[in-house]
Each structure stands twice: as structure tokens, then as C-alpha cells.
Amino acid sequence: MRVVAIGGGTGLSTLLRALKKLVKEGVIKNLSAIVTVADSGGSTGRLRKDYHIPAPGDIRNCIVALADREDILKELFQYRFEEGELKGHAFGNIFLTAITKITGNFLDAVRYSSQILKTLGEILPSTVEYVDLIAKFEDGTVIKGEDKIPDYARKHKKKIVDIWLEPKNVKAPIDVVESILTADYILIGPGSLYTSIIPNFLIKDIKEAYKNSKAKKIFIVNVMTQPGETDGFTAFDHIKKFVEITGLPYPDIGILNTRMPPYRLLKKYIEQGQEPVIPDVANFAKQNIKVYAKDLIDENSNFIKHSPELLSNLLKKVFSTFKAS
């Protein structure tokens, strides 16, 4: 079975931890993660600007998520400097940047890093070109920069009406296209809808490969809304907006959380403008989307997110009952 996961941010990292378990069990024979590289904030934003390379941060997190090593090398990749000129930088980001400059190829840097951490799957950047994410809001304002887009939306309470990459004609690596075309299952999300998920599908090569792939498409919906991106969105709203912006067909399967997060965490999130995503299952049925709705909350985390263990168990069931063509 060949599985491809597409996204970015902490959502994709969580999903990869779930999928890694299925690789170890032999359920998944071939796993690939396609990761957005438009991040422009923090350590990764500083490095991409200084060295004019794709953003390494989400890539680093995905490599660590799929790592089969549990020694100091795994910790080293996530180590973040706390003082001096390197303050705020993650070692893994610096490492990826250094190998990119040595080899002249970001894709090679990702592969070397994956080999070092012995990842149980292939990590692929959605493009190896330097790209910026641009959004237009309902008030006509155009904002450049992945990190600045949700900030503007939150501050001015304006909705995104259009989003694109610059340059618009960036290419995806051939390995990305090949992995999508040969996949049995393609998983989208969870993650920031406008700034982690959709940017991958703004690349024409990826969009066309996804459209032509015979894989079963699975959309994993976020457990919480995100201020500045999905305020007030139900579960179906996430998928509907994805379809509207990308022009792609509805997915075959939707995975939804049905459990209310623990109050100790929920109170803090609500104060920040986030709410649990309502699992409006009936709307999925209207679009002939098969729904798997279950308790997927990680109760052992200090954040409200999917449990890799529960998500892994559910995906195993999906793979066994909803056969790929």
C-alpha cells in the first residue's frame, strides 16, 4: 500500500506519527509526505530570507516525526538556541540550510537529513523554489508572507477571498508528482487550511497530479477552528473552502473528531478565539463523502490536537474497509 500525506505545520507532523505506526506494523509499505515550504515566520523565515532557500521548519518537524531514531540525534534536530546570535533558531533548520548550501540542492539536503534520522518514509518539499504566499482580503488589502496573513485577518477581522503563490509558475519535484500519481491513498490535513494545506495545491504540478491520481482521497478535518483562517467553520466548511479555492473535486472520505476537548484546555483556546469544529455529518452525505467520525482528541497533550494513536487506529480501519481502486 502506497500512502501520501500532504500538508504542513504541526498537523502534518501529528499525522505522520500516526502513519509511522502503520509503517512499523506493515500496513503501509510506502509512505511519502509532501510538505509546504512557504513558511515565513520565526527561525525558518529568517533562514529562507537570508539564504534564499525554501522554508526548512515544517520539513524538519516532519523528518523528526518519521524518525526511527530515539537517541540524541533526534533531540538535536529539535534543539532551539536560547541566547546569542542563534537565539530562536532550531538546529535542524540550520543543518538543512547548511547542507543545501553545500550541495546546492534543497531536495538533497532533505534526503541526507532523512537518512541520518532513519525516517520510515520519504519527506518531499512541495517545491524546491523560493516562494511567497500572498492573500487578498475582503477589504481589498493584499498581504505577502505566510506568517503575516493570519495576523492581518485576526487584527482586522477580515476574511481571505483569494490566495496564491509568487512566482505563480513554480514547479514541483518530479518525485512529488510520481508519488501522487502512484498512491493508493492521499491524505490531506489536518493543519492550517490557508497557510499549510492549500499552498501545496497552488502548485500546478501537484494540483494536476492529484486530479489525475486514482488514489482514494481522505480529508482529515481540524479539531479546532483557527483565528484568522477558519473562524466559525464547521467540518464541512473546511472541505468546501478547499474545493472552492483549488477547483478540485470533493474527497472520497472525511475524518472528523466528535469529542469535546478537555475543559482545562478548552477554556484557554476559547479565550484566544478558537472553538471546537462542529462535525456536521449530514453535509458530507450530500456530497457523497464517506464519513468516519470518532473521538480523536489527544488527552495527554497540553494542546488540543489529534491523538496519533487514535488517528492511527482509525486510519487502519479506513484502509481495510475502504479499498483503493
Q: How does this structure look, described?
A:
With 325 residues, the chain is α/β, with parallel strands linked by helices. The chain has three domains: 191 residues, 3-Layer(aba) Sandwich (Rossmann fold); 87 residues, no CATH class; 35 residues. Strands 3-2-1-7-8-9-10 form a seven-stranded parallel beta sheet, sandwiched between helices. Strand 1, helix 1 and strand 2 form a beta-alpha-beta unit. It is globular, with a radius of gyration of 19 Å. The chain starts with a strand and ends with a helix.
Q: Helices and strands, in N-to-C order?
A: EHEHHHHHEEEHEHEHHEHEHHEH
The count of DSSP E runs of length 2 or more, i.e. the number of strands, is 10
Strand line-up of the largest beta sheet: 3-2-1-7-8-9-10
Count of helical segments?
14
Mean pLDDT: 94
CATH level-four homologous superfamily name of the largest domain: CofD-like domains
* Low-confidence runs: none
